[in-house]
Amino acid sequence: ELAIGAVAGDGQPIMNWELVKSLNVSKDYIDQRVDEELEEIKRRRRQYVGELPGLNVGNKVVLVIDDGLATGYTALAAVKALQMLKPRKIILASPVAPAETVAKLAPEVDELVCLSTPREFYAVGQFYAEFRQVTDEEVKETISQLRVA
User: Fold this and answer.
1) How would you classify residue 5: left for phi > 0, otherwise alpha for psi between -120 and 50, otherwise beta?
2) InterPro entries, from UniProt (predicted)?
3) Dihedral pair phi/psi, residue 9, rounded to 5°
4) Other CB atoms closer than 10 Å to residue 114's CB: what's the count?
């Protein structure tokens, strides 16, 4: 699991510029991937919530949960996008992450909860018996259940 960056719905990429430089990744490649990912975010948003307005998290406590933080760039992109919406507090929670990722992310949130920071960390999946992608249908079903609750 090696990320050169991540992007959230606000469109601002969060990049690992050291890695981009060392791998000689072109600006054109980055721009293309950012555009592709933004289109995927729009597709998923339409599929998951339809035409409902965006989240109103102003002055609220927001809990961001990730199944594992490898590089932390995806979580950081989400946190940065949420910060623009002015929540009262952002809490980031994950069951597992490398210590250096926790150290990098901790200053970006009001609280960070991580249950395990193993020394030998190669990929999030190594800490799960089953580690598959959540399907669009599972996401839609969960959102539907939350709306009823």
Assistant:
1) left
2) PRTase-like, PRTase_dom
3) -60, -20
4) 20
Domain boundaries, the chain: 5-148
Task: Report the distance separating Cα 115 and Cα 101, nearest Å.
Answer: 13
For domain 5-148, the CATH class is: alpha beta
Report pLDDT for 149: 59
Rounded CA-CA distance 105/101 in Å is 6
Please check whether residue 16 is in contact with residue 71, taking contact to mean a CB–CB distance below 8 angstroms: yes
Q: What are phi and psi of 119, to 5 degrees?
A: -65, -40
Token pair in block for residue 127: 């800490």
Contact 8, 77 (CB under 8 A): yes
90-134 pLDDT tens trace: 999 999 999 999 999 999 999 999 999 999 999 999 999 999 999
